[in-house]
Please model this.
Amino acid sequence: MYPKHFEELIAAFEKLPGVGGKTAQRYAFTMLDKESEQIDEMVDALKGIRKIRKCRTCGFLSDEDECVFCKDASRNRTSIMVVAYPQDVAAIEKTGSYKGMYHVLGGLISSSKGIYPEDINIEKLMDRIDPSVKEVIIATSPTMDGEMTALYLDKLLKDKGVLVTRLAHGLPMGASLDYADDLTLIKALDNRRKIEDE
Amino acid sequence: MYPKHFEELIAAFEKLPGVGGKTAQRYAFTMLDKESEQIDEMVDALKGIRKIRKCRTCGFLSDEDECVFCKDASRNRTSIMVVAYPQDVAAIEKTGSYKGMYHVLGGLISSSKGIYPEDINIEKLMDRIDPSVKEVIIATSPTMDGEMTALYLDKLLKDKGVLVTRLAHGLPMGASLDYADDLTLIKALDNRRKIEDE
Model:
């Protein structure tokens, strides 16, 4: 019953994750109210993302051959942090406390989803390991697939003679101890540290 | 840190109602994963909605001078339902139980927001009232602004000698009586009907 392009816009918004019919309609009406300039902004951005590819070195997003991190000479090249997705790079960068390099796997090994080591960006990681690399920090999420991927990488990398570390698991800061799940508590206890180490 | 167009797409999504940074990023990554064809769909739809205007008769959305309802000769022209927004037309149409005409005000009279009768599509409604129109159904929401608008229209329309009705207020179907708010219960009691009328 709405004009054709409007129905099409609702349908396009409905394909976004977690967006149902009502929300898609609300988004479409917002775009309708917007000045043409704002429509142009979204159109230009959508057209522009077609040119985005993966950095040939680390797999992060880039509109050139190499991403901003791989091109940045000021970053510490002795350390590579391995993450599953580009979003994880954004999360780490926001903390401002890591200045090394990244490697984006583009997924996790998963027996349930049938994702094997050759399906993710592991080969290029191995190519990057040379004597100049002192540490590989595995920063996959502490989920089943994340753990499996971490163990797999740890094995491969140790053979290369590089120091392999993982992000610590334990109680999240600011959380109540009695709200933590058992696995987190067990990890927090296993990984307890002397107070002077903190 | 993301490529320019990708950051721009996140920014564009963040302007949608109720969308924060995380959600906007999630939407942008979904678009990145989509085949170019789906990006084209959204681009075409966005470009297309620039051509959408208001129906010159009723104010509903249209890409021509008149909307689908005003052009449809099979609809009952003796009845006009007045709603606040185009979305309300969609909600009524979905029920399939109204076959008359519509009039979209494009807003509600609101003392708190400073919206006056001349700011909404009332003049054209008055122009439509001629002896062929037998009933005007006021279907504004039962909110303060909706009620105020309904009362205002009722006064104007009664002078024109047309039958003015309102959507009934009462208990929503399927709801528990003890969960209804007081105002709804009072309305439901005031508007009680003989059982044979149902």
User: Anything to note?
Assistant: The helical segments of chain B are 4-14, 21-33, 36-49, 68-71, 86-95, 123-128, 144-158, 182-190. Residues 4-51 of chain B form a domain with the Helicase, Ruva Protein; domain 3 fold (CATH 1.10.8.420). Chain B has two domains: 4-51, 53-166. Residues 69 and 144 of chain B are 29 Å apart (CA to CA).
